[in-house]
Structure to design on (278 residues):
């Protein structure tokens, strides 16, 4: 999503998933974020700048990444001294480019908060990009993000819930997630066809630890392609080594082969991944 401010002559661009947040709702969002004078922010998708302006009035610096060239140009014209616009796709940003962006504003932030009204079609990839940046040493503390309600529900789901799955597990290893604010479709112009939820991710070192990150991630993804099967059958979706038997592996991990994937905790998936990787 994007935020509403000025520039009414610039219509929302469908290819960027733009739905601009109304000013009153932007104020509610920023109150929930609670920026402080000593804090530095990355904003993803500032759009027309309603959240940007409110953040900048309370925070130390705002580094705003905007993919839309026209909006980026308009934001630069109106930006205050502590707002720094970076034109480009946040999905392609590297840790070195983030560090360079902060060097250009002559500041090395000890910690960075994130805010963003995310285009719904790329929300999940952006979540994983933030995790990658955190793991690469960018000092992210938290991210307050607008998501499609269905995506937020998946992030917040518990084992045994139908919404519990790959996104819950892979993001949940790196961040605690809490709901912050529910928004109706009418909070945006043009109105989207879905409801929205503001969530906060608090980043932390990966937990539980696993021996092989790639095995863990690919195993979770493979097993959930057969989420309605038993674990013994679901594990067949993963390319096991010739000598490995799914039932024996599950028992070695202390798991019941008759369980279903959606009942496993993150810790149990980690235990299974370590057995598979051994």
């Amino acid at each position: 999503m994007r935020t509403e401010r000025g520039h009414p002559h610039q219509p929302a661009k469908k290819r960027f998933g733009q739905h601009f947040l109304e000013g009153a709702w932007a104020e509610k969002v920023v109150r929930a974020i609670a920026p402080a004078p000593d804090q530095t922010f990355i904003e993803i998708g500032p759009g027309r700048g309603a959240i940007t302006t409110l953040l900048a009035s309370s925070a130390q610096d705002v580094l705003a990444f905007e993919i839309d060239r026209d909006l980026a140009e308009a934001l630069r014209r109106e930006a205050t001294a502590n707002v720094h616009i970076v034109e480009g796709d946040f999905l392609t940003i590297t840790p070195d480019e983030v560090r360079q962006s902060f060097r250009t504003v002559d500041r090395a932030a000890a910690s960075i908060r994130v805010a963003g009204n995310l285009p719904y079609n790329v929300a999940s990839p952006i979540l994983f990009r933030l995790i990658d940046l955190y793991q690469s040493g960018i000092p992210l503390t938290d991210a307050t993000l607008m998501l499609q309600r269905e995506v937020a529900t998946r992030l917040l789901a518990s084992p045994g819930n139908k919404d519990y799955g790959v996104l819950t597990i892979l993001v949940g290893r790196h961040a605690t997630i809490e709901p912050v604010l529910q928004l109706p479709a009418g909070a945006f112009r043009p109105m989207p066809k879905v409801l929205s939820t503001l969530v906060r991710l608090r980043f932390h070192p990966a937990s539980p630890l696993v021996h092989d990150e790639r095995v863990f991630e690919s195993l979770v993804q493979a097993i959930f392609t057969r989420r309605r099967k038993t674990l013994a059958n679901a594990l067949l979706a993963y390319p096991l080594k010739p000598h490995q038997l799914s039932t024996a592996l599950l028992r070695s991990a202390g798991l019941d082969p008759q369980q279903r994937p959606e009942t496993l905790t993150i810790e149990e998936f980690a235990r299974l991944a370590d057995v598979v990787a051994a």
